[in-house]
TrEMBL record:
Gene3D superfamilies: 3.30.70.120. InterPro entries: CdAMP_rec, N-reg_PII-like_a/b, N-reg_PII/ATP_PRibTrfase_C. It holds the Pfam family CdAMP_rec. Transmembrane segments: none annotated. This is Cyclic-di-AMP receptor.
Amino acid sequence: MKLVIAVVQDKDSNRLANALVKEGFRATKLASTGGFLKAGNTTFMIGIEDECIPEVMKTIKANCQVRDQLVTPVSPMGGTTDSYIPFPVEVQVGGAAVFVLPVERFEHF
Ligand code: 2BA
Ligand code: 2BA
């Protein structure tokens, strides 16, 4: 058994949750925050048998889009702000950051 942890954008989370249910996969959704953008995202925990990994990956890929997001960097700490013009920079977010972990034991009481 494996635990798939997928960090996805909030905009994709409902679509992905519905797709996972439709395909018969069980999942838990957690509200999370990206360390870089400091904006909300959604983390899915999906416990599945090893042979289902390709299908789950396909489902995640099909339901999570890559998007460009503008970030305005904060002014440099302790530096002079007079000469610092914070230009927004574009970062590419998603479709999903996916981790696959081995599960030593799964119990359902
Ligand atoms: P955030 O940390 O808010 O990152 C949003 C996007 O900003 C990232 O998109 C990436 O394009 C950029 N970014 C993040 N950290 C950066 C850095 N140190 N320098 C330059 N650019 C940076 P994604 O890579 O698609 O990641 C989307 C979200 O997935 C992340 O939100 C984070 O919550 C999660 N994530 C991605 N990689 C991760 C990892 N290795 N471990 C844990 N969480 C991860
Ligand atoms: P349980 O199987 O007792 O699951 C309770 C909650 O535990 C689930 O909430 C989910 O958050 C988490 N969970 C269970 N198995 C998981 C796994 N393999 N990976 C990750 N998280 C897991 P819900 O998703 O709201 O499900 C509530 C109840 O609805 C479930 O109780 C189960 O009886 C049923 N159910 C859930 N998904 C189903 C599906 N795809 N097909 C049929 N029945 C489902």
